[in-house]
Amino acid sequence: SHWVFDFAEGDKSKKDLLGGKGANLAEMSNLGLPVPPGFTITTEACRAYLAEGREPDGLADQVSEHLDKLEKDMGRGLGDADDPLLVSVRSGAAFSMPGMMETVLNIGLNDESVAGLARQSEDERFAMDSYRRLLQMFGGTVLGIHGEHFSDAFDQAKDDKGVTDDLDLDVDDLKGLVETFKGLIREHAGIEFPQDPREQMDLAIRAVFDSWNTDRAVLYRRQERIPEDLGTAVNIQAMVFGNRGMSSGSGVCFTRDPASGDQGEYGDYLQNAQGEDVVAGIRNTVSLADMEQIDKTSHDELLAIMKTLEAHYRDMCDIEFTVEQGKLWMLQTRVGKRTPEAAFRIAVHMADEGLIDMDEALSRVNGEQLANLMFPRFDDKAEKKLLGVGMNASPGAAVGKAVFDWATAVEWAEQGEDVILVRKETTPEDLHGMMVAKGVLTSRGGKTSHAAVVARGMGRTCVCGAESLDVDTREGEFTVRGGKTIVEGDVISIDGSTGEVFDGEVPVVPSFVVRHFEGEEVDQPLVQAVARLMEHADSKRRLKVRTNADTAEDAGRARRFGAQGIGLCRTEHMFLGERRQLVENLIVADDERGQEAALDELLVLQRQDFLEIFEAMDGLPVTIRLIDPPLHEFLPDITELSVAMAVADVRGQRKKRQRKLLAAVQRLHESNPMLGLRGVRLGIVIPGLFTMQARAILEAAAERIRGGGQAQPEIMIPLVASVRELDLVKARIEKIAHDVETELGQEIPHKIGTMIELPRAAMTAGEIAGSAEFFSFGTNDLTQMTWGFSRDDVEASFFSTYLEQGVFPVSPFESLDVDGVGALVRRAATDGREANPDLHLGVCGEHGGDPLSIHFFNEVGLDYVSCSPFRVPVARLEAGRSVL
Ligand code: PEP
Ligand code: MG
């Protein structure tokens, strides 16, 4: 196999094979940009290594061939004692996993070549500093020694000398550290640091392969839904040094602001430093504007390259670079991660600039980002006590109790607390805490620090580099310079859009985007970008978007959000509260007259319910589902009632009504109520309920029409398994319709259809379609019934184990199980349409608002999706994207 590719052999389309970093290094090399030469070991080699537990045959030879070529190109040998070639060994998967996997720099240094490097560079301090960095990274990454052993020894050396800046350590101090670090390796790994450069390199390559399976990498992939089996590529590249004095440095930059989407370059630069110092946020960086003052030539060249890259990739690029003694080198580029706000704004800007068209712009945003922008933000008018300001690294308004380590964050979050994770800087270890926290606050590091990059990726609110806060994670507190101390458990609020940190709980208000959807004029660049892309999505989409709403208020909001009707009005809530009594009356009634009296009272109330909804949705279709849940949900709890009865018995106060009620509750009690007397089964066993509802719907529609409005009721029968069930209740509804039309002397347009939410219904959809004018897929029940998962129980009980073990990548209640449940949907849609070409098809389970599922529903040819009001804009956007 072809395991190793020279940079010149690759390009950006080979991401799966060369990883993102390798493919983009190749692309930049081919563009003629100043990239230090090197080669990439493929992800295929990593997969082979992980499968067999050893390097695949031929890999070592191919590495040797490419290393020979690299040595020739550079005119130096790896680890040569007089003038050593040094290389970096870096991971790089197809999907970027920032900070999750390993990198080792300065491979090739040993006790001899460090002297060669010192002579060649005429800088012994630099050579020693490079060696101690190698020992530190090699010890941590390759040998698995805890990083703190090295950083503690480093801090100790500074303490001993009475200095705080790394740069105040001189050659002798660094020589001492080199010996200390070698001792740490001996002590903790039980081996001598390998002096053979090739052995160093081979061990580093293996460590990168292995890092694919570290806990934090596995966790990150699960969070980001990155497949488990891709493996990482390994990039081996000639070293260039940002730590060769003040005319050297390292930086990270973006071609546009990744937080706001503002046009114009954005970046951080750090003099006399290697790249990891910038990303780790260990020392504070300067802006690109300041870099211009420091080194104008490199700065100008960098800006020119940024323009080239953006035009070439036609997207915002994220770039890592190094300046070595005044010479600029490009170390990495990729299409940059961005906040949801930046995604919308950049897409529209680029379309306006003519870099991309509107279809492309639409493909670059997604429903999850839009959902994110619909989160509330802090109330401008609220009183706030400012504690400090950092960088606005990832937007949102987060309120929670301050915690200072990831373990506490996890523990408290599990107890239902909202927490803000506060750290000096975050490391990949903190990932777990970042996932459960409402927000992340750090006192060091810029917008390109680990905390910022990871938080943006997760859509987590983040403020970083709040330098005026003195964070003491050991004590579990932070102190505002010259002011208040916040201890673990104190509530703070952080604004990821402004970088502000507030004391206590700040009230939140709806987002600008929501206010825009509500119909307000909102003069914000973000809102304009969202509006443009929504308009484009609406002009593209084939799927209609309806809403699940059972109050006039929800219906009204959904309509303002763009809903084109109601796809599911659940009627069961209309039987709760005071109306419960009427359901009780119905159930305990002694005779038909008693039942009818109870139903008549319900009829009046239901008619009013439906009338209000028809008003809110005037002119649009409204699907009303007849009562679905088991009746005992409307009755008192069996145990409580039994106890009450026993007490009443003792006191001799037992009442006739209570006795009847208990009898009814006992009669209706079921071990598996979701598989019991519910849905259409209720309609068959207690016909009066369904016919009362049908009458209320039709009378309300008639009234609306008489009042000059338009009502388009669609009466929907739940939980049908067989066409016979549907026929039985349909005949009764049709009779009611006929009666009402005769009584009122008025035609009432209406449809009668069914939900498809049982596997049997899906498998016999051809027959059912003969009796239905529409199907609505109830994918909640269909998922429950297909997998045999109780939807009320399993997510809390064993789903985390199932997700961990890879039974599915995401809960099938959240995103449709396309292979199983989806196959049933597809078959029912096909068979249903074949039997009845006029059949109208929709979906009203939770999946109707889920981006991935929406793409599937578009593909199988449904007519609409229906989702909760707040998901309506998300569904519109995704429906538009699904046809691109
Ligand atoms: C469904 O089962 O998908 C559905 C929409 O109905 P409910 O969630 O009310 O059972
Ligand atoms: Mg259902």
Automatic annotation (TrEMBL):
The active site is at H450, C844. Pfam families: PEP-utilizers, PEP-utilizers_C, PPDK_N. GO terms for molecular function: ATP binding; kinase activity; metal ion binding; pyruvate, phosphate dikinase activity. Its EC number is 2.7.9.1. Substrate binds at R570, R625, E757, G778, T779, N780, D781. Keywords: ATP-binding, Kinase, Magnesium, Metal-binding, Nucleotide-binding, Pyruvate, Transferase. Belongs to the PEP-utilizing enzyme family. SUPFAM superfamilies: Glutathione synthetase ATP-binding domain-like (SSF56059), Phosphoenolpyruvate/pyruvate domain (SSF51621), Phosphohistidine domain (SSF52009). PANTHER family: PHOSPHOENOLPYRUVATE DIKINASE-RELATED, PYRUVATE, PHOSPHATE DIKINASE 1, CHLOROPLASTIC. Its cofactor is Mg(2+). It comes from the Bacteria. InterPro entries: ATP_grasp_subdomain_1, PEP-util_enz_mobile_dom, PEP_util_AS, PEP_util_C, Phosphohistidine_dom_sf, PPDK_AMP/ATP-bd, Pyruvate_phosphate_dikinase, Pyrv/PenolPyrv_kinase-like_dom. Residues 530-879 form the PEP-utilising enzyme C-terminal domain. It comes from Nocardioides currus. This is Pyruvate, phosphate dikinase. Residues 60-284, 290-347 form the Pyruvate phosphate dikinase AMP/ATP-binding domain. It is an enzyme of class 2 (transferase). Residues 417-499 form the PEP-utilising enzyme mobile domain. Mg(2+) binds at E757, D781. It catalyses: pyruvate + phosphate + ATP = phosphoenolpyruvate + AMP + diphosphate + H(+).
